[in-house]
Specification:
Length: 277
């Protein structure tokens, strides 16, 4: 299968079908991620509390909240990097069984592309090798096709000229764009970002946000844990404010930012927005 940006297959099918309304409804109803009463304890510390979470196809969900509120833990549970203590996780309807081995979980894990704060590129591989590693190993994609896919994705994130560079020769912003290309290479159903720009020098943040914005506008399904309030406000379809292991408030970004209903949301936003340049 040739690379298509997330959601693009459906967008094209929808347009050519001539039955826009019906097709759009079908797509919008598709739930990519669902959790039911998800709980996570570290020892006796209750870090996720009865989290019910749904992400629909093409939705861009921003998760904001103070340090230690459980944002990363939630993302890590979704991707089976962390084992939930109780509750259920469904990825595109398929239940994630936490008792399976990492190898057994591999197919379902590859449905979600993960982008970390610290890039996590393989240092001993070139940029293009980083990108094609998972499609080659997990999807058994032939080398020539994988390389063609890798080159296409590098062009997409504006890094064609870095194809054969090693990660230690890249800036943080470039590394993160490679990490996004690597996540896209598995053609995941959704992308999960955990503070993708917070390790970057301020002048490099924009280039990464631009790639993420493009993905959002193309119809990708994304969950973005972020401190970038402007991005959350401008790009997401829904903002979730998380505090102390719970979703305190969620809704339309304009509503949340202009008129938060919960006191804790208001206090948090006043604090973070007041330190914005
Ligand atoms: N592996 C772990 N072992 C024990 N406690 C942990 C572990 N990982 C996270 N925690 C604790 O769980 C709570 C939630 O952590 P988490 O990293 O999910 O917060 P966060 O909202 O992502 O914070 P930040 O904005 O600082 O990244 C914190 O109190 C943290 O100390
Ligand atoms: Mg975190």
């Amino acid at each position: 299968m040739d690379f298509q940006p997330l959601g693009m297959n459906d967008a094209l099918a929808t347009t050519s079908s001539g039955n826009l309304t019906q097709a759009t409804n079908v797509v919008e109803d598709e739930i990519i991620i669902r959790t039911v009463k998800l709980n996570k304890y570290f020892g006796d510390k209750h870090v996720l509390k009865d989290i019910d979470f749904e992400v629909r196809k093409r939705e861009v969900v921003a998760v904001i909240g103070p340090s230690g509120s459980g944002k990363s833990t939630l993302i890590r549970c979704l991707n089976a990097l962390e084992k939930a203590t109780s509750g259920e996780i469904y990825i595109h309807g398929e239940k994630l069984n936490p008792n399976l081995s990492i190898k057994q979980l591999s197919p379902i894990r590859s449905e979600l592309g993960m982008v970390f704060q610290n890039f996590n590129l393989f240092p001993h591989m070139t940029v293009v090798e980083n990108i094609i590693e998972a499609p080659r190993l997990v999807r058994k994609m032939p080398k020539d096709r994988a390389i063609a896919l890798g080159e296409k994705l590098l062009a997409k994130v504006g890094l064609s000229e870095k194809r054969d560079a090693y990660p230690n020769r890249l800036s943080g912003g470039q590394k993160q764009r490679v990490a996004i290309a690597r996540a896209l290479a598995m053609q995941p159903r959704a992308l999960l970002f955990d503070e993708p720009t917070s390790a970057l020098d301020p002048e490099l943040v924009g280039e990464v946000l631009k790639v993420m914005k493009d993905l959002a506008y193309e119809g990708s399904t994304m969950v973005v844990v972020t401190h970038e309030m402007q991005f959350a406000r401008d790009v997401s379809d829904r903002v979730i404010f998380m505090s102390d292991g719970s979703f305190i408030e969620q809704g339309d970004p304009e509503e949340i930012f202009k008129n938060p209903k919960e006191k804790r949301t208001r206090i948090f936003l006043e604090r973070v927005l007041s330190v914005l340049p």
